[in-house]
Amino acid sequence: MASRTLVKNYVAQWMQMGKTVSLSAQGKQVHIYKILQGEKYSSSFNKLWDEISTSKAQEAYLSGTDQTISDLLDNKWEIIACARCNLLVPSVDIGPRTPVCCPCDDLPNHPNLDLVAPHVPVILASQLDDLCDRLALKSEDQAQESLEESDDTYTSDEEDTQAVHNLRTSILKLVKSGQSE
Q1: Long-range contacts of 128-133 (CB under 8 A, 24+ apart)
Q2: Could you read off the pLDDT of 123-150 as tens digits, one per residue?
Q3: How far is CA 131 from the centre of its chain?
C-alpha cells in the first residue's frame, strides 16, 4: 500500500516536471508553478493536495496516467522509482514490480541529467549536519590510516577534529540566522 506521503511526493515530483492534475471528468487541468517553498511544500501545493487527497480523490489524477489519487491510496498500489528516470511512479503491489505507466513516457528529452531532478523538500540544517558527520568520519578514517602507516610522523587529528567542529558550528549558525530572517 502506498502511503499518503509517497503519493504526495509522487504528485509533487511530476508537477515539478510540468505535469498537471486533472480534477474532473470535464478535464479541468490544474498546474502549480511553485511546488517547493524553502524547506517545505508551498501553501498552494498543500491546498491542492488536501483537495485531491480527500474530496476529489475519486476524480483527480496526474496527466499522462490512468490511476486516480483514490486508486493510488488503495491497498493494491505502491509507489516505486521508475527504472528509466528514477522518479516516483505507481506500481501494482501484486506480482512483478513493473510500473503501469510512467509519466515520463510523453516528455521529450527526459530524463535530462543536465537539469536538477525534481525532489521533495530538503531540511537544510539536517542535510548540512549529515555533511559535517561525513566530513568528520572521513577525517577520522584518514587519521587512522596515517597512524597505521607510521608512528613517527606528525598528525593533526586534534586540529582536524576542531576544524570540523568549528565548521559545523558555523554552518548551523548561518542556517539558523537565514531561517530567522
Answers
A1: 128/168, 128/171, 128/172, 128/175, 129/168, 129/172, 132/164, 132/167, 132/168, 132/171
A2: 777 777 777 777 777 777 766 666 666 5
A3: 17
